[in-house]
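Supplementary Methods. Inverse-folding protocol.

Structures were first reduced to a discrete structure-token string of length 82. This string, shown here, constituted the complete conditioning input.
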């Protein structure tokens, strides 16, 4: 059986999605892949979590308050490595 424990120093992936079941599934898959997923249910919460420690983002394109692609452009303006 594969471990789902996150190894310290694993790349962090920000998941931005308002569907809890999708977030849960993505967290499981990313942990099995050795990544450190963090979840935000919307763009405002995701904005508060953005930092240089985030290696990648998975974005829902149909978020309630803002389109995912619009959030992507805002996030990459502050953190171009995303």
């Amino acid at each position: 059986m594969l471990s789902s424990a996150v190894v310290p120093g694993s790349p962090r992936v920000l998941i931005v999605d308002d569907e809890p079941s999708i977030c849960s599934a993505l967290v499981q898959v990313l942990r099995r892949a050795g990544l450190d997923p963090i979840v935000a249910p919307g763009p405002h919460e995701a904005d508060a979590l953005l930092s240089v420690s985030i290696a990648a983002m998975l974005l829902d394109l149909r978020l309630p308050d803002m389109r995912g692609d619009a959030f992507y452009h805002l996030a990459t303006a502050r953190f171009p490595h995303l």
